[in-house]
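Training component of the fellowship. As part of building independent skills, the fellow (R.M.) carried out the full modelling exercise for a liganded target. The chosen ligand was adenosine-5'-diphosphate. The inputs are recorded below so that the supervisory panel can assess the work.
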Amino acid sequence: MSNAWKLMKIMVKMQLSWAGKSSSEKVGYVIMAFALIPFGALILFSLNNLIGSLYDALAPTGNESVILALFFILMFVIFFVTSIGTVLSSFYFAEDVESFVALPFHPYQIVLGKSAVPFLSLYGLNALLLLPVLLFYGLHSSAGLLYYLFAILLWAVTPVIPFVLLSIVLMFLMRFANISKNKDRTKIIVGMFGFIFAIGINVVIRLDSGGGGSGAADLIREQNGLLELVTGFFPTAYFSSIALTQPASLTGVLYLLLMLGLSIGFAILFLTVGQKVYFKGVLGLSGGTRSRFDERKIHKTIKQKPLIYSLWLKEMRIIFRTPAFFTQIVVQSLFFPVFLLVILFMESNTSVASLGSLLTQLEGKKLVLGLFGFTLLAVGMTPASFSSISRDGKSWFNHLHLPIAPQTVLRSKIITAFTLNLLTIAILSFAALFLLQVSFKIWTLWLLLALVTNWVTSIGGLIIDLYSPKLDWTDEREVFKGRFIGLAMLAIEATVFGTLILILWNVSAISGIWVTTGVLLTFLIILIAACHAGLKRLSNKRYYSIH
Amino acid sequence: MIELKSISKSFTGKQAVKNLNLTVPDGKIFGFLGPNGAGKSTTIKMMTGILPIDEGSITINGVDITDYPMEAKHLFGYVPDRSDIFLRLKGIEYLNFIADVFQVSKEVRKEKIDYLTKSFGIYEALDDHIQTYSHGMRQKIVVSGVLLHDPDVWILDEPLSGLDPKSSHTLKEMMREHAERGKIVFFSTHVLEVVEQLCDEVAIINHGRVQFQGNMTEMKQQFQDDDNLERLFLELTENE
Ligand SMILES: Nc1ncnc2c1ncn2[C@@H]1O[C@H](COP(=O)(O)OP(=O)(O)O)[C@@H](O)[C@H]1O
Ligand SMILES: [Mg+2]
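Fellow's submitted model of the complex:
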């Protein structure tokens, strides 16, 4: 056990150390921490209000336990979902995994060491969310000392079960699904999995809220009736809530002991499964697949292509083949439109569906500006554009000694960002035409706006990235992590387009669909021209000096 | 002919190349010899347009790399000292990309890709991602990329390090053939032995300055006469 302890300390130190973080990154974190203080205060304030009013509403029928249950369920889901990424990268994808496997440790010791950081980081959220909830509930219910004692114990064990369950699921997935033959593909599949999971939860919640509104009233009438309904799938939330609402009773004590026992049991289960299964998922993880060699296939790919197409193809291949890029760029940008699509499908018989006909009744100017704002939401944030240069990392210099004009390289990168957004635009077009039945005229108008906006943001992002690129990374995730470049882009766009919308909205001389569109497009085209000119100047100055 | 005239380059607070003059004649294998950190890679990066030149000028077959970068870059092929090429591409995709850059026709590229990758023994790895290649294989795919477009001037930064003996032999043969056709092979190394085996002419660089330029017999003569060079000689032979 002392070996496991040492291992854990080393791993925590290595993963949490500040060393190797640039000073601007450190400053960024500090600023962020301070910026979060008022935000945190706001959250605490509203949490307190929420719990207070829920308590007052539910206590008369003896259903107040459901408040705690809801938060326990919420924490369970949050812990489960946030652990997907951290556990996978710590257990399987971290660069040090194989070097630890080579050392004389038991698998369970390595698993224990590897889980330290992902597990302990759950306590950050736990302290931020669950702790105040338990405290506020105690205050509102004027609970006794015993409640607070129980609360502390239950608070401490809450992350255990979701973490263990997820880790076990992942360990078996990695072992049996045999997906780990290809490290990259696994990462991509897991990224998609998270995406589908998030949308799935949304669907379930929506389906649920659709049905039986009348039954709820009956349930409220019995004590804890609501609790049993809500915690059907989450027995641990039930146990914890009962233990906390009746701390002085035998039932309460029993449920507390049950929770503590379960947590210990799960921890033991975790180590047992880790001992048996962990190595089987890790071994043979590194390296890609070696495809069977096929001479004809090779010969077929040999043909001459225009340079700009070749460059574009290279960009697309790199994005689609690099897990971090694929999830951050492709999956992220699909999130908004697919989410929207799902909502529209679910609500296809209700008010949203008639939005299409509603649109035509809007005043021309408001309609156009509304569409423009919506477009900005959809294609305004393009990670593909503000990672244009940084994505190349240490291979950037290859563009410099080859006889390719800087303008050609940059253009291929703009086109790449533009193409990736076309997917979003296509999905939204489908939604507009077939689900919302937006008129053809409005759709054409929107499409025009969307394409031009897409062009603007694709260049804009490239300019920002060219201005301060990060080429010196060893892990692709660093291209997006701790760079604040997305934030910078958001701020610039909010300022420029916010001002534009505000001005157009208030100038009464501009009105009607066509005039507003005309003015907007003129402005955007001028912006594009300005961006191109700026890009040219910036690239003359910076293109050869970034390394 | 490659001409470097009074080249200087500083990195923050440190001068890596100091007032360097060099003339590389046609039809020769030219060795650029010096210990680690001497300034070889820095000089080569300026020759290939990767690093801006602080002072001085460089012409390749009469074309100035700073004033006419596109024209100059069409004249040479460069093998970098590190193999940070586009790792997510497959070998064949990389070669196709390079061939597209230099507008190599379909027939020529097919023939050359076959010939080059077969002689380096990486033909069967062409459909694999470069990421899965060993250091030597990466070196070979880059060299294949350079030879694919048949440039007049070869600029190779430590090209032999990491190659197995057979491929090393193949590359040396190719270098010899290229020089015999009246073209230029310019390569850097920190191994004296390689220079003795291979070069027609050599320049020795240390601390960013050229210490010597001449042919092999002159070099041996100088090593005996000059104390400084003798010390350098020891350093270079102890290296490997
Ligand atoms: N990007 C850089 N920033 C700072 N110093 C550098 C950089 N590149 C090279 N140097 C320094 O310049 C000197 C020459 O390096 P280099 O040309 O790579 O030597 P070598 O002859 O081994 O190829 C070394 O002292 C090196 O530390
Ligand atoms: Mg070097």
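The panel noted the following from the submitted structure. DSSP finds 23 helices and no strands in chain A. The first helix of chain A runs from residue 2 to 16.
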